Amino acid sequence: MPRICELQPIVDLMKGDTMKKILITWLILLVSLGAFAQRKALVIGNSSYEKKTFSSAKNDAQLAADALKALDYTVVHKTDLNYSEFTKALDDFKKDLGIGDVAVLYYSGFTKQECGKNYIVTNVDPKVKGNQLISVDVVLEAISRATESFMFLESRQIGTSFFKNPCGKDKGLASIDKLGANQGFAMAAGSGEELRPASSNYSVFTHALFKNMTEDMLDFPDLMTAVVRDTKVETKDAQTPYWKSNLKAPFSFYHPEQGLKYRFRLPTYRGLEGGGSYNF
């Protein structure tokens, strides 16, 4: 099988968007066909932290788990994890990853930024003293054991009243400085944007992500371009997801020659958390 680096000159020589798209599609098939049996996902939905609640977090996580199972991923699905439970789930997932695997970590719940670093806020664990935070950088490093790895954050800010921030006001999550090899990252809002929880069934970013992921064969940058477009349309430009990629070759979650493992129907947009439901 030719290596991607050997095929790149062909891509560069292609003239016209249609022919280039055909070649990229072929490259995705070439690279991805051997990965079906090693697709693994960890899905976590944390709906509360002390008196704060994120009502759609569990629904979002269930949607993510269902979609990834339909895409033939082996899914570990957890909800309302405290610090000890979260670190154990992450460690177990990390140990199961290796060369040839595709890893996806999806998290819906509370997050915070501190001094330019992003953290997941776990549920309170009475056995642990101090801030019970999981570094997003640590999570990205853990899943980088796989050949290709992806992290998706449907996050809401916890607010400064719960934690002392030595760098001042928490202004939403920061952009990602560094990704591992062959790694992709996306989060529901742009750097510095704050999304607050509202009462609803599903979140716009999650809905747009898995709608596009399960309906068409899209290279990761094309997938995220579609997700950004759909999210902006549904929220009337109030929310713009952030994403970053360090993938060395084309990658698609959906493959038409395999199709979906079973029939999968997304919920409708009715009841989505978006537009005026947000407080920026």
Task: Report on the architecture of this protein.
- The protein is an alpha/beta fold and 280 residues long.
- The chain is globular, with a radius of gyration of 19 Å.
- 31% of the residues lie in helices and 22% in strands.
- The model is unreliable at 1-7, 33-37 and 273-280 (pLDDT under 50).
- The strands form three sheets. Strands 1, 4, 5, 6, 7, 8, 9 and 11 form an eight-stranded mixed sheet that branches. A two-stranded antiparallel sheet has the order 2-3. Strands 10-12 form a two-stranded parallel ribbon.
Short description:
The chain has helices spanning 4-13, 17-32, 57-70, 83-95, 136-143, 204-215, 220-234, and strands at 39-45, 48-49, 52-53, 74-79, 102-114, 117-121, 133-135, 148-157, 183-187, 202-203, 242-245, 272-273.
Distance between the termini: 50 Å
Mean pLDDT, as a whole number?
Answer: 83
| Cα-atom radius of gyration | 19 Å
The share of residues in helices is: 25-40%
Question: What is the total tally of β strands?
Answer: 12
Count of helix runs: 7
Q: Roughly what fraction of the amino acids lie in strands?
A: 15-25%
Which stretches are poorly predicted, pLDDT < 50 over at least 5 residues?
1-7, 33-37, 273-280
The description of the largest β-sheet is: 8 strands, mixed
Shape: globular
SS content category:
alpha/beta
The sequence of SSEs as H and E is HHEEEHEHEEEHEEEHHEE
Which assembly state applies to the chains in this document?
single chain
